[in-house]
Amino acid sequence: MGPYCRGMVIFRQLFDPQSSTYTYLLADPATRQAVLIDPVFEQARRDVALVEELGLKLLWTLETHVHADHVTGAWLLRERLGSRIFIGAASGAEGADRYIKPGERVELGKRHLEARATPGHTGGCLTYVLDDRSMAFTGDAVLIRGCGRTDFQQGNARMLFRSVREQIYSLPDDCLIYPAHDYRGLTSSSVGEEKRYNPRLGEAVGEGDFVGYMENLGLAHPKQMDAAVPANLTCGRPGEAHALADQPDWAPLTYTFAGIWELNPNWLEENARAVQIIDVREADEFNGPLGHIEGARLVPLGALAARAKELDAEVPIVTVCRSGARSAQATVLLKKAGFGNVANLAGGMLRWRAQRFPVEGGTE
Ligand SMILES: N[C@@H](CCC(=O)N[C@@H](CS)C(=O)NCC(=O)O)C(=O)O
Ligand SMILES: [Fe+2]
Q: How far apart are CA 14 and CA 142, in angstroms?
């Protein structure tokens, strides 16, 4: 394989279960520059966590089209990470930083994606093809053994048929296809496979057959369509009433890709009196060489669910253990028990002590 082989790009496929949408993270390992294709508004927090944990710099968010079934995370990611919003020039959307025309490249460190016009599902659909033609992000033009519907948003079955034949089936047979959705949990396909087995768009299917098929899909409109289309026409900018309400404001918390809210020791040291510190280790550890944080209450993890009612529901909770692992699980148990403001002390007593914060008991 040449210098552009697939091993040289960082790649993750992410899923939004509510809308069955795939979001793709691509990054150049040399420069750490990254792009997210089709991010979902409700998943922005997860996407931020992954970008940060992998040590990447999110340069752009790219849309394959104006989605009808979910709101894009583009605007929210720009707020949180300073990424720029790229969308097709033919999308009709306002508020983007760059309007991409077919044939243009999106640079990503030493790598790039080529935008190809694949209208038909909507009037402005783009497919992004990786520089070595090993991967194509087809949006809703080609789905795995299917394709995007053509009954709204300037949809046009004839146009979709031609787009797929000319712009996607002209790629190498082993080029992998990554669609914007799959409703059965299938994750990827290839050009050769779809040419052979796609029931709507197989090579033996003619344009007239395809149009007949698409006129008779009989699908209900997407559940979120009335809200999603206007929001996506402003690149996912929420209406005024929509504060970024999902970000807890009682402390500067970090959300991990593992799904845990974490707190750093410095904040806890300065704000210990404003929270309940729950140490979930065993009694012999609490009273052992590492010591414990002043004011911490001992509730071993195994007893936490049963004893949760002893805790004050009005005061935020910080959970602590030796390394931060058991206490991460404690946050999960406490959330289940109905406590809203809960965070894990990152790194546990080991990091607390490494940073030389004071302990009660313990040995030097
Ligand atoms: N039940 C889904 C419908 C989603 C839907 O219609 N998806 C569009 C893509 S935006 C599509 O083209 N689907 C093709 C298909 O289901 O065959 C929802 O409510 O979101
Ligand atoms: Fe779509």
A: 18
